Amino acid sequence: MIVISQCANPGCNAEFDHREGELFCFRKPPGADGRPANTHSVQHFWLCAQCARSYYLESTHTAVVLRSRFDREATSHRSQFIAVA
Ligand SMILES: [Zn+2]
User: How far, in Å, from the CA of 47 to the mean position of ligand 1?
Assistant: First the structure.
């Protein structure tokens, strides 16, 4: 079951609406937290339509980060930490 309450952008608090925006599913690396790979190892995030135009989410080895679609040169500086992977 997907439980999302609002936009993943920390600076935005738009309420989740499956009819718009963009949904991201990130699978945690198996065994990263000692549990087998199953549905509990998948994280779901959502960006509202407005944020999805400017940002996307990316999963790294250690975290899920918010990145600008328009500033790829400086993503490492602009990315925002969203969640522990
Ligand atoms: Zn938003």
Answer: 5
Full-model pTM: 0.73
pLDDT value, residue 34: 60
Mean pLDDT on 32-57: 80
Query: What gap in Å lies between CA 69 and CA 7, rounded to an integer?
Result: 16
Q: What is the mean pLDDT of the chain?
A: 82
The Cα 66–Cα 9 span in angstroms is: 7
DSSP string, 19-71: TSSEEEEEEPPTTTTSS-SSGGGEEEEEE-HHHHHHEEEEE-SSEEEEEESS-
What is the whole-number distance in angstroms between the Cα of residue 1 and the centre of ligand 1? 21
